[in-house]
Amino acid sequence: DPAVEKLFYRTIEKGKIRAEMRLRSDRNDLAGLYYAGTAHGAIAGYESTVKRSFLSSLQHGKQAVEIHRKLLKTHPDFVDAYLSVGLYNYVIGKLPRPMKVLMMLGGVRGSKDEGLKQLERTLHHGKFAREEAAILLAVLYDREKRPQDSLKLLRVLSEKYPANPVFPFESATMLTKLGQLPESIAILESLLNDEKARNYMLDFIQFDYAEILFSM
Predict the structure, then answer these.
(1) Helices in the chain by DSSP H: which ranges?
(2) Is 119 helix (H, G, I), strand (E, B) or coil?
(3) Is the pLDDT of residue 85 over 90?
(4) 3-class state of residue 76 by DSSP
């Protein structure tokens, strides 16, 4: 929706301007550094997933990480900044070896395991980005073949945000991977009886339900 996209960019820009105003007064200002980095991170996430503008997304992601690394040098206990740094480390660490070598030649390094630890640190000790860390880790645990760990986070998120159908849907996906089909079916049937869930993601719910029935 062009109107929503315009509002998104306009709102993020307001946040960047206010953060930059704080940094003009004090270049190590905690709020200025955190929200300047967060603004670039939000744009990076949107442009990589929605607009599929990967080069622009990479640039914003790099800026977010550079700002948050600077923040961590002066405020090492502000663990919320590890959200962007941890994700960056994980992504670089997961690159194919030839690409990783090229990145290292350019001075870019990352570790998958270190990235996961940093995201887990944000999850357990963060103040502002705990939910974002939980969502990211739920996805990454699934990629790491850890569906049980992913399911634990998704259940917590489902309880905290009962109006959001994505979390129970993803919980059903993890239950299916764990072979707990009756529980998965129960969740999918409850989503099919939820008008909001049907309007938002009926095709996904029906497809997963059919896949389970076919496997049985």
Answers:
(1) 2-25, 30-49, 54-74, 82-93, 97-105, 112-125, 130-143, 147-160, 166-177, 181-192, 195-215
(2) helix
(3) yes
(4) coil
What one-letter code names the amino acid at 59? Q
Q: Which residues of 19-54 are buried (b: 16+ CB within 10 A; e: fewer)?
A: beebbeeeeebeebbbbbbbbbbbbbbbbbeeeeee
Phi, psi for residue 161 in degrees, rounded to 5 = -125, 70
DSSP symbols for 140-181:
HHHHTT-HHHHHHHHHHHHHH-TT-THHHHHHHHHHHHTT-H
Per-residue pLDDT reduced to its tens digit, 154-200: 999 999 999 999 999 999 999 999 999 999 999 999 999 999 999 99
For residue 113, give the nearest of 125, 121, 105 by alpha carbon: 121
Q: What are the φ/ψ torsions at residue 53 (nearest 5 degrees)? A: -100, 85
The C-alpha torsion from 164 through 165 and 167 to 171, rounded to 10°, is: 160
Q: Which two tokens stand for residue 63?
A: 């800026």
Q: In this predicted structure, what is the pLDDT of residue 180?
A: 96
